[in-house]
Write a sequence for this structure.
């Protein structure tokens, strides 16, 4: 359970030289915004054949869904269902973790954009979409023909995501969407957009619960995006706004083509973003430790190698403790996902711990390297800036803690609200 | 066209920080400090085999001498497009020299009915550079070494380019069956795809011990070798050599001083 299978070991071995040679050589261009991240994703797919690995399972999944739709059988559209289905069994969660980890050793930005494309956007369409919608919107995503993004956050609704104000007003057999999204990974260059909107029938009480994912395409009238935002880290991953100005869509662009309660859906997708964080933290920590040990052995001060100083030994030993913990959390999370035994509190605990550990290890790696560590030439500088995002994106560290406490109290029959106090 | 490609697992010394330590026997190196990879030239041989198969059909069989740990490099070759594999594994095979190694490989290859045998031109660990040629001799087929390009002329003949000093390419025609010892740099070894890696775990790796080779104990290992490796040693730091230490700025300044002092510049 705490070891990679022979297959995953081989996959890691195939990924490592690719990341260290091909990807590493492109990191600067990616960070400078000179190289589109989607180009790199296409290259990655060309080399490792993700699309060809998934083409068969996707086709089967569409056929099965179509049959069920014809029979009138409804699926829950949950992530567990997806994991247990054709596509889920074709991609072991640990495979995704190993990919995210290996990518994050070199470019967490690439891992983030890759995750938003396949994990957030692609996966949402697969679990919530009808067979037609999967065919039309998910296939080009998984074939790396079109880049996807997933937009929930709004300027005034971040942690309190369900306070979103983007509306979809029914008009005949259409909806008219208005509002804006911000901080959306891949949005500046995306071709396919999942955006969450509140269906607004002018009835405050029921409308509150009517949050649904719509799928939109670049070029749709009224849909526009902002320029990539300037960020502290994750600079190779474009982040931006989405503006919706009287965007008219039919029912066929409402995922699932039916008004079902959507709140749980967005929460579930958020969960998958949460689950990628420990894997990304694992990669960042592993690389920072590798670099730190190497540096501590090479660098001499006071006539001794740094590694001979016990204060330096303390640093690398603590880094290792974090590595060990985060790696174990990743194994545990993968196991839980595979067995369908994931729990919200454990996923939150893993994300909380792993993201803070990545930041701490990164900062210590910089400290260990002194002035050299602060320079761009040392990879740890970028990794540390990137690591900070893990404490914010996909739910902040504070929100992870609130969720854990909420669950613990709920076990005792006390219903807490994220807004503080009891749920009303 | 059926192809056999011989692959060796070697310590990964690509990381400049890898330090080599001689083990207690004095005849081996401490393996615990290394990670292992496919020998560089063999990686190019695998790619060449798969390129030929993709173009002209047939099957690629991967042959290796090694313990279970070597499955890793075998599986990777299978993941890239190899069809089957043979691993020669027996305690008695340890300390085989070039001749005994070639003899072992021959025992696995002779009944496979292949048109072409590919090896790397040299192993990065022992650097013998002779196994391919010895194997060709034993199989009684023509060979070419330091091969960088391979073209199929017809179903009997290949045109191969050998790399000579200064990058000169010498073109030769060679009749099949034959053996080519492949040089690095002639192609671009691919990365194994995820799908390929999945499929590789279903492919068979046939294991041959001494009995299965049909060889006797005195034909393999040290007793089957004509050259016996007696000891490894690390070159001693001589009095005439001065190791210059420090960061690049310091070392270059010191070096410049020495050159000036000795009147060499
Ligand atoms: C690089 C990047 C990429 C992103 N990608 C995406 C994407 O692809 N799709 C998407 O939908 N979103 C994305 N986001 C948005 C991200 O999910 C939000 O930034 C995050 O959820 C936090 O929301 P906020 O920024 O509005 O912060 P706020 O919610 O305003 O939080 C500010 C601070 O207050 C704290 N806080 C808030 N509420 C409470 C409370 N009840 N108790 C205690 N503390 C609280 C927070 O923890 C935080 O420290 C991305 C963000 C970044 C930076």
């Amino acid at each position: 359970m705490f070891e990679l299978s022979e297959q995953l070991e081989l996959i890691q071995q195939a990924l490592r030289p690719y990341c260290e040679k091909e990807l590493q050589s492109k990191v600067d261009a990616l960070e400078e915004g000179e190289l589109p991240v989607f180009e790199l994703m296409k290259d990655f797919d060309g080399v490792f054949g993700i699309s060809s690995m998934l083409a068969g399972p996707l086709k089967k999944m569409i056929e099965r869904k179509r049959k069920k739709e014809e029979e009138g059988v409804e699926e829950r559209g949950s992530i567990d269902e997806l994991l247990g289905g054709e596509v889920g069994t074709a991609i072991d969660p640990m495979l995704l973790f190993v990919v995210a980890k290996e990518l994050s050793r070199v470019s967490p930005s690439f891992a983030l954009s890759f995750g938003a494309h396949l994990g957030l956007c692609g996966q949402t369409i697969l679990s919530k979409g009808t067979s037609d919608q999967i065919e039309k919107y998910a296939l080009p995503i998984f074939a790396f023909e079109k880049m996807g993004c997933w937009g929930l956050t709004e300027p005034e609704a971040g942690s309190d995501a369900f306070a979103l104000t983007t509306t979809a007003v029914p008009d005949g057999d259409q909806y008219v969407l208005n509002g804006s999204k911000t901080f959306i990974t891949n949005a500046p260059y995306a071709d396919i957009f999942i955006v969450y909107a509140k269906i607004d029938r002018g009835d405050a009480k029921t409308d509150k619960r009517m949050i649904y994912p719509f799928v939109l395409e670049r070029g749709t009238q009224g849909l526009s995006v902002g320029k990539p935002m300037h960020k502290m880290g994750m600079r190779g991953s474009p982040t931006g706004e989405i503006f919706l100005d009287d965007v008219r869509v039919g029912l066929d662009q409402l995922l699932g083509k039916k008004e079902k309660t959507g709140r749980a859906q967005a929460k579930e997708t958020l969960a998958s973003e949460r689950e990628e964080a420990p894997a990304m933290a694992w990669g960042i920590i592993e690389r920072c430790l590798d670099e730190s040990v190497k540096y501590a052995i090479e660098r001499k001060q006071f006539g001794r190698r740094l590694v001979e100083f016990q204060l330096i030994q303390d640093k690398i030993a603590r880094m290792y403790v974090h590595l060990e913990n985060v790696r174990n959390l990743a194994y545990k999370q993968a196991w839980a996902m595979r067995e369908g035994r994931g729990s919200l509190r454990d996923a939150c605990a893993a994300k909380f711990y792993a993201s803070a550990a990545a930041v701490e290890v990164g900062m210590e790696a910089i400290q260990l390297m002194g002035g050299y560590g602060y320079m761009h030439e040392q990879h740890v500088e970028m990794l540390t800036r990137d690591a900070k995002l893990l404490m914010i994106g996909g739910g902040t560290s504070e929100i992870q803690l609130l969720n854990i406490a909420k669950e613990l109290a709920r076990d005792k029959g006390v219903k807490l609200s994220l807004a503080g106090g009891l749920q009303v | 066209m059926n192809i056999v490609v011989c692959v060796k697992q070697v310590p990964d010394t690509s990381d400049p920080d890898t330090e080599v330590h001689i083990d207690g026997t004095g005849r081996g190196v401490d393996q615990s400090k290394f990670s292992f990879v496919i020998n560089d030239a063999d990686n190019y041989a695998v790619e060449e085999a798969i390129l030929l198969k993709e173009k002209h059909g047939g099957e690629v069989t991967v042959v290796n001498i090694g313990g279970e740990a070597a499955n890793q490099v075998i599986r990777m070759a299978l993941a890239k497009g190899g069809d089957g594999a043979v691993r020669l594994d027996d305690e008695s095979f340890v300390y085989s020299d070039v001749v005994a190694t070639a003899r072992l490989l021959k025992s696995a290859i002779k009944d496979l009915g292949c048109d072409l045998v590919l090896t790397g031109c040299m192993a990065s660990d022992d650097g013998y550079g002779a196994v391919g040629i010895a194997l060709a001799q034993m199989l009684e087929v023509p060979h070419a070494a330091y091969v960088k390009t391979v073209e199929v002329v017809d179903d009997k003949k290949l045109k191969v380019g050998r790399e000579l000093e200064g990058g000169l390419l010498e073109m030769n025609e060679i009749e099949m069956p034959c053996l080519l010892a492949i040089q690095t740099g002639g192609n671009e070894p691919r990365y194994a795809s995820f799908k390929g890696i999945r499929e590789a775990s279903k492919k068979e790796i046939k294991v041959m011990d001494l009995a299965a080779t049909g060889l006797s104990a005195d034909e393999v290992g040290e007793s089957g070798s004509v050259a016996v490796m007696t000891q490894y040693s690390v070159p001693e730091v001589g009095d005439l050599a001065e190791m210059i230490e420090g960061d690049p700025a310091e070392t270059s300044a010191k070096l410049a001083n020495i050159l000036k002092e000795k009147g060499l510049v």
